[in-house]
Write a structure and sequence with these properties.
Elements (H helix, E strand, L loop, with lengths): L20 H59 L6 H17 L1 E4 L7 E4 L5 H26 L7 H93 L3 E6 L4 E4 L1 H7 L3 H4 L10 H16 L6 E11 L5 E13 L2 E10 L9
Antiparallel strand pairs: 1-2, 3-4, 3-7, 5-6, 6-7
Length: about 375
């Protein structure tokens, strides 16, 4: 926006408004909204991965029941003279229990021998059930070995078989209880996930409402600011028109120039005084319209103006000058010069008067 002063020519200077508090709040709310959405996505991904892992662990815990049952059948088959690899089944059952208790690598596919890493038991109750299952399995293995060492005609054969069947039933019970506890743990995790997603969802909703309000406020503020700027521009244009009319119709020569003495404004009276149209004068050094001594005075004045601190106007008047018309003719004159600095740029306005009709002592 052009400065409202008559010390230098009208010019449009763009003004960038500083960011308002609404803008900062809008940016902060948007960032929080994005972070909340990313948090929900990350939380969901982690939860899904945990659910997959929990499902795998539940499958392994449930598989123990099948392994115990197969172990028992294979022991009976071997006792009857058939071929059965009950030791492999026993090994897998012990390895799985070890992984369920302490975490680590577990064989998740018995056909392909694919393995995976599982976490340790998450609660004391589960640890207790898995340890009980481990103890029962060790007891079953010991009695199964003893059972296989005895012949089917041994008097202890049937009691040993019943003992093994009872141990298998106990192993089934403990394995089922472990699966139940794992399922409860998973259900608790799911409920916890739902609660947190509801909380985060509510936070996102609140942030969304806040963000919407801030957008509306920012839009309203922008409209008001735009209207205010438009009004200011209109006022400025009117002021510039009045300024231009005053300068144009002034009877005294008015010249505005930059700190390097290049002409910016050359009114009608200046055209008549110096015999040069304004378009030709603009951009030219004003020193060409002064005698050498008068030009030296102008240069000294500009240097003195630069040495002053601040942005206040500096006004001085000088008599006994000599101007030079476009045809080279010199004439006695006097001048009033004013300066002002705005945004580190200094402008000079000279009101030049012809004193040819007066008696003047040349300098």
């Amino acid at each position: 926006m052009a400065p409202r002063t008559n010390l230098f020519p009208t010019q449009h200077v763009s003004v960038t408004a500083a960011p308002s508090s609404i803008s900062y709040q809008l940016i902060a709310a948007t960032a929080l909204f994005i972070l909340a959405i990313l948090g929900i996505i990350l939380f969901t991904i982690i939860t899904i991965q945990n659910q997959k892992l929990d499902s795998l662990v539940i499958d392994l815990a449930g598989r123990q029941r099948m392994l115990h049952q197969r172990h028992m059948k294979e022991v009976i088959l071997v006792s009857q003279g058939h071929q059965a690899d009950y030791m492999t089944t026993r090994t897998i059952a012990f390895e799985t229990l070890q992984a369920l208790l302490h975490g680590g690598v577990a064989r998740v596919n018995l056909q392909t021998n694919r393995t995976d890493i599982i976490p340790s038991a998450p609660s004391p109750a589960l640890i207790e059930k898995l340890q009980a299952q481990q103890t029962l399995l060790a007891e079953f293995a010991q009695k199964a070995d003893t059972f296989l060492q005895n012949s089917s005609t041994d008097s202890h054969h049937t009691p040993h078989l019943h003992a093994l069947l009872d141990l298998t039933a106990n192993l089934h019970t403990v394995a089922d209880e472990a699966v139940r506890l794992y399922s409860l743990q998973t259900s608790s995790k799911i409920q916890w996930m739902i609660r947190w997603e509801l909380i985060i969802g509510a936070m996102v909703a609140v942030l969304g409402i806040f963000l919407t309000r801030q957008v509306l406020r920012a839009t309203r503020a922008l409209k008001e600011e735009t209207a205010s700027r438009q009004q200011s521009e209109l006022s400025l244009q009117e002021s510039e028109k009045r300024y231009e009319q005053i300068v144009t119709t002034a009877k005294e020569a008015i010249i505005t120039m930059t700190s390097d003495q290049h002409i910016l404004l050359f009114n009608s009276a200046a055209e008549s005084l110096f015999g040069l149209p304004s378009p030709s004068a603009k951009g030219q050094p004003f020193s060409q319209f002064l005698s050498a001594q008068s030009s030296q005075w102008l240069t000294q004045h500009i240097h003195a103006s630069h040495s002053r601190e601040g942005q206040e106007a500096m006004i001085s008047e000088k008599k006994g000058l000599h101007g030079r018309r476009a045809n080279g003719q010199e004439f006695p004159a006097e001048a009033t010069i004013s300066s002002i600095t705005i945004s580190d740029q200094t402008f000079f306005t000279i009101i030049f008067r012809d004193r040819s009709s007066d008696v003047i002592v040349p300098i």
